[in-house]
Amino acid sequence: MKDIYIHNTLSRKKELFKPITPGYVGIYVCGPTVYGDAHLGHARPGITYDVLVRFLRHLGYKVRYVRNITDVGHLENDSDNGEDKIAKKARVEQLEPMEVSQEYTIRYHEAMRKLNVAPPSIEPRASGHIIEQIGLVQKILDAGYAYESNGSVYFDVKAYDKNHKYGILSGRVLDEMISNTRELDGQDDKHSPYDFALWKKASPEHIMRWPSPWGEGFPGWHLECSAMSEKYLGTRFDIHGGGMDLMFPHHECELAQNMASRGTGGVNYWMHNNMITIKGQKMGKSLGNFITLEELFTGKNSVLEQAYSPMTIRFFILQAHYRSTLDFSNEALQASEKGLRRVMQAAKDVLKLVPDDNAAELPEIKNIFDRIYDALCDDLNTPVAMAHIFDAVRIVNSAKEKQVRINTADHSTLKEIFTVILTDVLGLVDEETADGHEDVVGKLVDMIIDIRKKAKENKDWATSDRIRDELKEAGIQIKDTKEGTEWYLA
Ligand code: ZN
């Protein structure tokens, strides 16, 4: 198997990837908080880790990809205080909290499907793993790294920092953090402002609540990822991914919880994708530059000059390295749209090239192929891989114009670049062909209806009825009118 290098946030350098079990990779990625529509910020981790999983599978690894759904515990303002966003909407609109999170989960899945992000192997929900989370709180209490206070349980960061180092992932030092912070106001149940909730006592109006040894309450946000990654990937697994914005406090706390409960940080490689900015600014609702994926696909947002197709977004994201910031602009997306069209045209043209076995081998083709692999093995360098794919586009265009001749072996390599690397690994598919399929179905149904018409003219009622019934079975309803036969998808 080829050597892959991954930048590990923990060591702050690129490392040769060595899986714990040869041939198998366990990956955990922090999924969405299912409150609010999927937005541009969701597209980047979605696509980045999708390409990582696709590439590892392409190389022959068996991958278990776990991406969670946060439907409890990630609170509105502060991770310890305030009302859960989902619970609040449920209360205001008189819905079950599960109705709220289900609605947004469906919309998130739909957006990911459009972006051709393959579903994870396991998609656990925080609310479905309360028992595991309570068990974890108990373990951390037993280890002496947590304390109970007024029905809540907090992680004792100072006690932890004495024996292990708190802050190793984000590079923060606890003493420096303490000297820069205000004192607690005495109203708080916490001993220190850095302590974070493992379990939070539910106030009387809080509707998402579960019984626990410490009274009725709900889990702290960071807890779910420690509990669910251990359940599905074991006490130590290969890769943990997520956005850079999750590195602190979420992943730092997760690592501390793992260490406190299992004696290991639990993760060999921490990967963090950078953020998408809009004209150099962080995207945010309060900044008025917040764009949902649905708005991008439809063009319905005043920031947008036009609609951008899901594959244009995917192409745009892959054109930057996942660890670099990516600045959104209409110009950049329009350039991506053009680039996508060019590469998709070449992907179609390459299949129609007629190889010429009298042609000499073109070593540059094999060279391009190897360089694409090298780029992907080098910390998933998709922009370099894409640049080499464009080298292949130029060769396809020259061959199409009969400026170069391609032999069979080179033709196979070229086809592999477009059908395997571009389509299977990078997940870029031709949106026009997808529409084309509907067109083919339409033509086939018209042809079948024409055969039925002929059967009726010949008074072959058996055939005509059979066609009607079998089309119905296939989900196509037909209706005979004076003007002819109409059909529609039932
Ligand atoms: Zn997480």
Taken from the alpha-carbon principal axes, the silhouette is globular
Counting DSSP H or I runs of 4 or more residues, the number of helices is 16
Structural class: alpha/beta
Strand content: 5-15%
The count of strands amounts to: 15
* Intertermini distance: 48 Å
The biggest sheet amounts to:
4 strands, parallel
Bound molecules: zinc ion
Tell me the radius of gyration.
27 Å
- Kindly report the average pLDDT value: 91
**Can you list the strand order of the major beta sheet?**
4-3-9-10
**Uncertain segments of ≥5 residues (pLDDT<50)?**
76-81
Provide a quick synopsis of the model:
With 490 residues, the chain is α/β, with parallel strands linked by helices. Helix content is 47%, strand content 14%.
Write the layout of secondary structure elements.
Blueprint: E1 5-8, E2 13-16, E3 24-29, H1 40-58, E4 62-67, H2 85-92, H3 97-114, H4 130-142, E5 146-149, E6 152-155, H5 157-163, H6 174-179, E7 197-201, E8 217-219, H7 221-233, E9 237-243, H8 247-262, E10 267-273, E11 276-278, E12 281-282, H9 293-298, H10 310-318, E13 326-328, H11 330-352, H12 363-377, H13 382-400, H14 408-425, H15 431-457, H16 461-473, E14 476-481, E15 484-489
Parallel strand pairs: 3-4, 3-9, 9-10, 11-13
Antiparallel strand pairs: 1-2, 5-6, 6-7, 7-8, 11-12, 14-15
Zinc ion is lined by residues 30, 225, 250.
